[in-house]
């Protein structure tokens, strides 16, 4: 017995099933190499370190399918920037990356930038401002910190006992904590929101410069624009026009307001 496909932006089909015992489970297939190996290599260690992820129930290596624990309750956009989730991300970012694990390689190529700019058709000034963000983006990718790479509110859930769970690990990789912090802020965010979140994260982690982290969050916000537009276009998602229209409306003013953080 199956329900709707729950996948929004990914390639894999995500289905809510009821198994032979009457238990609701998630089946995800076909998953990429990064996520398949994440559940077999990293998930157990990270769970023991305080990063709660869905339990792996079974896997089929030939079909590249995973059957996972169903996480029944949503986490709202307001909740996602709370200290409980920041503490979970601190645990992830502090954990020492294993060279044996399989990672998604994060980066902001000029090709991806120009493809997104072609689709966005921004005014010339705005396009140049976004190019400046790309020129400063290497700071995001030189870290060895583990990152989920996709920490938006839709990828968090709660168990019945209140445990907060992070799922969708196809972009599991290494980089600046800002890669995971930027999606916690609604919309494109503001300078004050970046500084506030960076300060709270640094207070919890005790190991970073909040002003530098706020700058990286702003750069990550700009990078995510290219990532979202490129993925939606390449995967032929019907939601692409909605995102293009939203960014066309909001990006020019955001770039004017935040550009001096670089």
Automatic annotation (TrEMBL):
Aminoglycoside phosphotransferase domain boundaries: 13-187
InterPro entries: Aminoglycoside_PTrfase, Kinase-like_dom_sf
Pfam families referenced in this protein's UniProt entry, alphabetically: APH
Record protein name field: Phosphotransferase
């Amino acid at each position: 017995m199956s329900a709707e496909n729950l996948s929004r932006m990914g390639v894999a089909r995500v289905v809510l099933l009821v198994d032979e015992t009457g238990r609701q489970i998630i089946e995800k297939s076909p998953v990429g190499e990064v996520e398949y190996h994440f559940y077999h290599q990293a998930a157990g260690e990270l769970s023991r370190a305080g990063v709660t992820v869905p339990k792996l129930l079974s896997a089929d290596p030939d079909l590249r399918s995973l059957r996972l624990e169903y996480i029944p309750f949503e986490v709202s956009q307001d909740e996602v920037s709370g200290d409980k989730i920041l503490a979970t991300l601190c645990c992830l970012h502090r954990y020492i990356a294993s060279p044996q694990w399989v990672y998604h390689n994060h980066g902001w190529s000029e090709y991806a930038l120009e493809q997104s700019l072609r689709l966005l058709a921004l005014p010339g000034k705005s396009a140049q401002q976004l190019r400046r963000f790309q020129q400063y983006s290497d700071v995001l990718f030189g870290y060895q910190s583990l990152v989920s790479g996709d920490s938006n509110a839709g990828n968090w859930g709660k168990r019945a006992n209140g445990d907060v769970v992070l799922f969708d690990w196809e972009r599991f990789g290494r980089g600046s904590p800002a890669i995971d912090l930027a999606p916690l802020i609604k919309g494109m965010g503001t300078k004050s929101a970046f500084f506030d979140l960076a300060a709270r994260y640094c207070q919890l982690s005790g190991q970073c410069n909040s002003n530098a982290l706020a700058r990286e969050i702003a750069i990550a916000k700009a990078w995510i624009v290219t990532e979202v537009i490129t993925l939606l276009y390449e995967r032929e998602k019907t939601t692409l026009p909605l995102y293009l229209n939203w960014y066309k409306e909001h990006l020019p003013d955001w770039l004017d307001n935040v550009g001096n953080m670089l």
